[in-house]
Amino acid sequence: MKRLHDFKYAIVAAIAFMTAITATAAVSGDKKGMETALPAKAKTFITEYLAGEKVVKSKKDGDKYKIECSSGTKVEFDKNGMWHEIKNGKHGISSSAIKVLPNAAVLYLQNNYNEVAVKKIEKEPEGYMVELDTAPDKCEILFAKEGNVKKIMHDN
Fold first, then answer.
1. Which of 22, 52, 96, 122 maximizes the CB count within 10 A of its CB?
2. Which residue numbers delimit the Putative beta-lactamase-inhibitor-like PepSY-like domain (predicted)?
């Protein structure tokens, strides 16, 4: 009877081990495949502005690439790997990712909204649109390409 119990335990342990290895290989294979599918500029962006974050999802959507990090940060790139949008509605965008903005914009945010999380940064033809976590009201700041404030919008 003890031998049967030990045998059943060994079978269950072997199945669990094989399942874990298969799942790990599948995730690793997907991630590796996803990373190689990203354009070089997107990979450079991830290394430079998302250092220390782990990319958990990546996909090609038409002519765009989208990634998601374990922190909840999501980035959208164009077909050449240039970023278009960064967002993290849960925790706010990391300070290293905010540095995609021109220096003047980064300094403005540090001096005027230091305790407020940046939820979204979007590249616009005239500059950068930054959405702040100022709940319950919405606050967006439009920065010129050089980083100067062009417009501040509050929704009450």
1. 122
2. 63-150
Q: Does this model's pTM top 0.90? A: no
Q: State the Cα–Cα distance between residues 102 and 23, nearest whole angstrom.
A: 42
Q: Using CA atoms of 107, 116, 131, 134 in order, give the dihedral in degrees to the nearest 10.
A: -140
DSSP 61: E
Q: Where are the beta strands (DSSP E) in 30-93?
A: 55-61, 64-69, 74-77, 83-87
C-beta neighbour count of 97 within 10 angstroms: 25
Going by C-alpha positions, the residue among 85, 82, 59 that lies closest to residue 73 is: 85
Q: Tens of pLDDT along 63-74?
A: 999 999 999 999
Q: What value, to the nearest 5°, has the Cα angle with vertex 153 and ends 150 and 155? A: 175
Predicted local confidence at residue 49, as pLDDT: 96
